[in-house]
Amino acid sequence: MEWKLDKDRPICPQLMELIVTGIAGGEYAAGEKLLSVREVALQAGVNPNTVQKAFSEMERDGMIFSRAGSGWFVAEDTGKAVERVETLARTRTEEYVSGMRALRKEDADILRMVEEVCHE
Amino acid sequence: MEWKLDKDRPICPQLMELIVTGIAGGEYAAGEKLLSVREVALQAGVNPNTVQKAFSEMERDGMIFSRAGSGWFVAEDTGKAVERVETLARTRTEEYVSGMRALRKEDADILRMVEEVCHE
DNA sequence: ATTACTGTAATAGTACAATAATACAGTTAG
DNA sequence: CTAACTGTATTATTGTACTATTACAGTAAT
What we know:
Two copies of one chain form a homodimer. Chain A is mainly α.
């Protein structure tokens, strides 16, 4: 895992996104053990509390679970993670389009710009 | 002006974007007087200090200017505003695409999703 | 059992954006 | 001139995200 974080945005949701994408993408298998809170904090260069918070929120959503003293593990059902990634993609696209429209961009211009950026 | 603000994001840049888009879109003509700091704060439901900060930052970029005691006015050259809107659109598109790629989306999927959201 | 890991919790401190409340000075219309 | 508007500046307070540090208890390997 790369832990490529943007320092200018909240770290907690970024961590969550990296992990959920890893699960949905199959890099983390169901039931697999994750890195420890302290290890992630070390590798990502952030505070353990922030990692703990990210893990706890993902646990609340049923995507991972913890065994106290033992570690964090990927949930048996990875469906939640796949679903979450899809929702994220959809939400982000909607926000992007509405943001571009606020800039007075026509749909055709939006599509053209996305295409252009993709092909670079 | 609508002052449609998202309370979950920093207000200052949102105000700047609304104004710069208004200038670039021609709703505010070159040299035209803008609403006062206090009036914008009232209409938008935010603190005057935040409006003052937004105006000052736009002044630093040469898009508007102030005459102390008189008010704020659109700069004679609106090119800066047009340019800024283009940069915003471009940057936002790049961030969107790279964000979607982080979710393991192929270019074709990205384009398909944008198209779908546009046609709704 | 000891050791070294794990999760978990609590507290304090930092940084930032925004708010709140004033105050002061320049401009302009009456 | 005066009154009512302007921009501008200052100080204090709130809320939030993150950091820093420490502590405690569960787990597992030796």
